[in-house]
Amino acid sequence: MTKTMRAVQYSGYGGGAAALKHVEIPVPTVKKDYVLIKVEAVSINPLDWKIQDGYVKHILPPRFPHIPGTDVSGEVVSVGHGVTTFAPGDKVVGCLGTFGGGLAEYALAHISTIAKRPSGVTALDGACLGEAAFSALQSVRDWAGVQLNGSKPKVPMNVLITGAGGGVGTFAVQLAKLGGVHVTATCGDGARQMELVKSLGADEVLDSKAAEGESLKSPSGKKYDTVIQCGEYMPFAHFKPQLSPSGKVIDLAPSPKSMMSSATSLASFSKQKCVPFLPSTNSTDYYFLFSLMQQKKLKTVIDSQFPLSQAEKAWAASMTGHVTGKVIVTCTEHS
Question: Where is the Enoyl reductase (ER) domain (predicted)?
Fold first, then answer.
């Protein structure tokens, strides 16, 4: 195996796509409980460039230079000491977390963060999962309480999904509809994106730039039991008029402002709450998502695809905020 690899990295906070540098560096050395993956594809998440902007630098500063990229798909080429559940040749997907490393030809992954990719799930599909799919699945199932076992809710449930055209939103709409709930969705990138979200199962789709979308009011007059907030920050007070008496907002991108709203709502006597949310990586959820994809109950939406040599274009596309689904970087010729 080659001793060096192509990678994309940055050496400090800020700078956006222009700060990304193409380098040739040594292939990482595999260590205990890790595998070395030959990366086929990696998706760009908003969290990737928010880390570059210093979004979490007070709690988790990356070491510089830093290779970004969280959600990867590829093939195991070597395993570390103590690894018995994976072997060279296994096709896998992985969620590398905020430590990144995915924008490269090879990446290290702890065995707790990867899963074997089954036939019928492509490398591109696998790279779309990770942070986005975990956020959608866990917020819909675990926090909104939507049952995904095929049974309909005993009591009708109404869910609002904001930013439904993005990477998380496109998964959240599909998953919520699998649970038999009524889904109202908002998106802000035109009629084409609205039609796509409708095709994914949304019962009502609002243009977030129009008056009705800004008000979040359901055209059918329904109040929301749960809001899955995938879009840009909005104050909790903006949601409250459209919530049911015990409705809650699940904030998938907690910020200092939203954390303050959450603390205030949780301390109040009101049953309406704002709940901050962060996803957790686990192989059980990966295999559940694979199963849905193999049954054609869940599909990925890819906005655009770039080779590793053009990673900065993928980065810039994601940073615009006008992305439908996921932005993918391919790291091999056969992805």
Answer: 15-329
